[in-house]
Amino acid sequence: MPPILDISGLAKTYGNGFRALNGVDLTISEGEIFALLGPNGAGKTTLIGIVCGLVKLDQGHVRVAGHDIEKDYRAARSMIGLVPQELTTDAFETVWATVSFSRGLFGKRRDDAHVERVLRDLSLWDKKDSKIVTLSGGMKRRALIAKALAHEPQILFLDEPTAGVDVALRRDMWRVVRALRETGVTIILTTHYIEEAEEMADRIGVISRGELILVEEKERLMARLGRKELIVELQAPLEALPARLAAEGLRLAEGGMSLHYTYETGGERTGITALLRDLEAEGIRLRDISTRQSTLEDIFVELTRESAS
User: Fold this and answer.
1) Distance CA 160, CA 40 (A)
2) 100 in helix, strand or coil?
3) What is the pLDDT confidence band of residue 306, given thresholds at 50, 70 and 90?
4) Cα-based torsion angle of the residue sequence 89, 164, 131, 108 in order, rounded to the nearest 10 degrees
5) Residue 305 vs residue 231, higher pLDDT
6) 198: containing domain
7) Is the domain of 18 the same as that of 156?
8) What is the C-alpha end-to-end distance of the chain, expressed in Å?
9) Residue 281 burial (CB count, 10 A)
10) Within a domain: residue 299?
11) Separation between Cα atoms, residue 206 and residue 39, nearest integer Å
12) Parallel, antiparallel, or unpaired: how do β-strands 286-293 and 227-234 relate?
């Protein structure tokens, strides 16, 4: 099956000389949730802007379900919904009017049943006659999603979808996104909340300084780059590591009351058995042992640090 979004050789330099994108290649399959991560100024917003027709590209090609965004703009753009980071909408219009009007902007015939279905799916039906200005931040965010879905797009871009939303509403939004994917909508999101990508995404892309430095399935990425930390709590504090243990990469923590040992999860040998044997040989008595798995945030920080060096 051909990708629903095909980006090749995408480049963009702004008038002030800032090169926002430098030869980005990316394909996204229909029905997946793709998370694009990167620090501020990495090129995320420029990439979304080009695909959505808001920013003109300098070089490269973008095809949406086979439609070139420049040569076949109307067909390509009609397949895309965008939920911007900023809460920009007509504050004094009702929810119903705002969503219905958005559908008409794409030349879609009036379909009250579809608009009702979207509002119900987003728990906005009881707010349909409320003015946008009266809604809470979370409800305004839902209204933006409803606007983006009004014309029945196949791809939905979510730019920082839960920015400024409390934890409870954030998790509610995650449920909304998963439900959209179940209807066949392809979701592409940018986020500063690493746990958001870790919770929802099928694949992760990391962009830094205008270049896509990594694209990989989330589970494979965490298995390949993830590390574990063994934490050994001691019955009595150590003032310093014995020479034999210092050579194994251990570090003392918590005033000498614990030892920390980092190892690769995918390695054939972790070294834990030898470590525990050496601890016993040194007469070091243990109170407890636990492990900590590296998170997607740990991996992201390491990748962006390496790309910046």
Assistant:
1) 12
2) helix
3) low
4) 40
5) 231
6) 5-222
7) yes
8) 38
9) 11
10) no
11) 9
12) antiparallel
Backbone angles phi, psi at 168, to 5 degrees: -60, -45
The answer on 188 and 236 residing in a single domain is no
Q: Give me 20's structure tokens.
A: 């926002």
Do 21 and 126 fall within a single domain?
yes
Total residues found in the chain within this entry: 309
Residue whose token pair is 């994108």: 21
Structure-derived torsion over alpha carbons of residues 275, 281, 287, 292, reported in degrees to the nearest 10: -10
- Note whether 216 and 232 are same-domain residues: no
Q: Do 218 and 238 have their domain in common?
A: no
> What tens digit of pLDDT does each residue of 109-135 get?
999 999 999 999 888 999 999 999 999
Q: CB 288: neighbour CB atoms within 10 A?
A: 10
Quick one: 98 and 189 in the same domain?
Answer: yes
Joined tokens for residue 273: 């058995």
Beta bridge partners of 161: none
Place of tokens 């933006």: 144
Give pLDDT tens digits for 159-190: 877 766 667 777 777 888 888 888 889 999 88
Residues 6+ apart with CB under 8 A from 104: 110
Q: What are 158's strand-pairing partners?
A: 83, 189
- State pLDDT tens for residues 223-249: 666 667 788 899 888 888 887 777 677
